Structures are given as structure tokens and as C-alpha cells.
UniProtKB/TrEMBL annotation:
It comes from Algibacter aquimarinus. The chain crosses the membrane at residues 87-107, 119-139. Keywords: Membrane, Transmembrane, Transmembrane helix. It comes from the Bacteria. This is GTP-binding protein.
Length: 167
């Protein structure tokens, strides 16, 4: 069963390019100097495109590109849209914390059930953890949807740089 990008919080894509990876990477390096709408950082085969600090908000996306060489005349671009890594780490930490607390309450509920004690509080707290997890998920979806225009701007910038490279 294949999932669509509608459910994915961090959309990914692949593009096969008809030029070597070094010339594509150099195109991003050159564009970095010619414009000021985006911050472009290059580390080895990776390019990170994000908005300047004054245009960023909590859910501001960034675009991470990895451009791998296939052969001398072609390369494969892997792209990943996502929030700032600090925001994503916090978001994942909260998910794991909720999951850990859910597991702890389920163990406590099972223990009380086997001892034939009341376990209603633990079940209630487990349901609360499920509600919090759903809230986190929808919070991420709202953050993603509020950043759609910015994601399109990042994508348009990437396509503009790639199209300048075409002969």
C-alpha cells in the first residue's frame, strides 16, 4: 500500500538530472551569491535552502537537497522538505515522550488488572496520551499546511536554479 504525500509531514522527492553533480552544486553556489531571498548552504553533496531569519517563523520549512553522481553525465537529486532541524527534534522528542508515557501507563494498568485492582485511572491516562499524540500529529499537519506557500517558494527557487543549468 503506497502512501501519498498528503499524509507525510516531511515530503520527499527524487529528480534525475542530465548533468554531473558537481556542475549542479556549483550552480547553487553561484546562485547563493546572486540573490538574497534565500540562504543557501552547501556541504559536500548536500545543499540546504532556507529563508533568512527575518522571514522565518516557528514552522518555516527548509529544503535539503542531496545531489549524487550517477555517472559523468547524470546525477540524482534527492529532496526533503522539513521544518528547522531544532523544531523537528523537539517535535519528535514530544512524540517519543508521549509514547513512553503511554507504555508506562499500559504496564501499570496491566499490573493492576492482574492484581485485580482498579485500573480505570491508568486507562484514562492512556487515552489522554492517545489524544495528545493525535493533537501533536494535527499540530504538525497545521504547521505543514501553513508553510505550503513557503515550500512552493523553495521548490520554485530550486527549479529556477536547475532550469538555468539546462542547455
Amino acid at each position: 500500500m503506497e502512501l501519498s504525500n498528503d499524509i507525510v509531514l516531511r515530503p520527499r522527492f527524487k529528480i534525475e538530472l542530465k548533468e554531473d553533480n558537481e556542475s549542479v552544486l556549483e550552480a547553487f553556489e553561484l546562485e547563493k551569491k546572486l540573490q538574497s531571498d534565500f540562504i543557501v548552504n552547501r556541504i559536500d553533496d548536500h545543499v540546504f535552502i532556507k529563508f533568512p531569519k527575518h522571514k522565518q517563523h516557528f514552522w518555516s520549512p527548509q529544503l535539503h537537497l542531496e545531489i549524487n553522481e550517477i555517472d559523468n553525465k547524470s546525477s540524482l537529486l534527492h529532496g526533503l522538505f522539513g521544518p528547522n532541524p531544532t523544531v523537528w527534534t523537539l517535535f519528535m522528542f514530544l512524540h517519543f515522550m508521549v509514547a513512553g508515557v503511554f507504555i508506562a501507563f499500559s504496564i501499570w494498568a496491566y499490573t493492576n488488572w492482574t492484581l485485580e485492582k482498579n485500573f480505570g485511572i491508568q486507562i484514562t491516562l492512556m487515552l489522554l496520551m492517545v489524544i495528545i499524540w493525535i493533537g501533536l500529529y494535527f499540530g504538525g499537519r497545521i504547521g505543514k499546511s501553513s508553510s505550503k506557500k513557503e515550500m512552493q517558494d523553495l521548490n520554485n527557487f530550486m527549479n529556477r536554479v536547475l532550469n538555468k543549468k539546462k542547455p
